[in-house]
Amino acid sequence: MTCYEDGVLVGVKSPMMVGRESALTQAELDAATYRGCNNIECEQCGKKVRVFDRQMVGDRSGKSLKDAYATPDFGGLLVTNEFSDAYRTYACACRIKMVSGVRMLAEERYDSDLYWSCAGHGSEEE
Fold first, then answer.
1. Do β-strands 56-57 and 96-99 pair in parallel, antiparallel, or remain unpaired?
2. Would you say 97 and 89 are in contact if contact means Cβ atoms under 8 Å apart?
3. What residues contact residue 122 under an 8 Å CB cut-off, 6+ apart?
4. Contact 14, 87 (CB under 8 A)
5. Mean pLDDT on 25-29
6. Distance between CA atoms of residues 103 and 125, nearest Å
7. Average confidence score pLDDT of the chain
8. Rounded to 5 degrees, what are φ and ψ at 121?
């Protein structure tokens, strides 16, 4: 089962799904009880999207996202400062996105050519 609207990116003020928690439903969206999807994959590079709380993109000059993805701290591309407390940063090997509010992945596909989507969650029977 995949999340409604391909999944949701949320800033740190909204909770993330935990473990194999069920996918986000239309009812939750109608009630504005957003939970960020914790199982997002990139359709372009094929990598799982990593999530970093309270961190922002720093200096990217001369740094490759592909190389950064392979490191635990994302290659030093992320920083913590007086503004980062509001952000959750999502990153794969080819794209990076900082979020402070709520963004539907289906909208991001059209607004910013971000080809990420929910890779699915446990079945309802589990």
1. unpaired
2. yes
3. 1, 20, 22
4. no
5. 62
6. 29
7. 82
8. -135, 175
Token pair listed for 83 = 């503004």
79-85's contacts with Cβ under 8 Å and 24+ in sequence apart are: 79/55, 80/54, 80/55, 80/56, 81/56, 83/56, 84/54, 84/55, 84/56, 85/12, 85/54
Q: How far apart are CA 98 and CA 75, in angstroms?
A: 16
CB 8 within 8 A of CB 104: yes
How do residues 49-103 score in pLDDT, each as one tens digit?
999 999 888 877 777 888 899 888 888 888 888 888 889 999 999 999 999 888 8
Asked if 97 and 69 touch (Cβ cutoff 8 Å), the reply is no
The two structure tokens encoding residue 26: 């239309």
Give the type of residue at 47: K
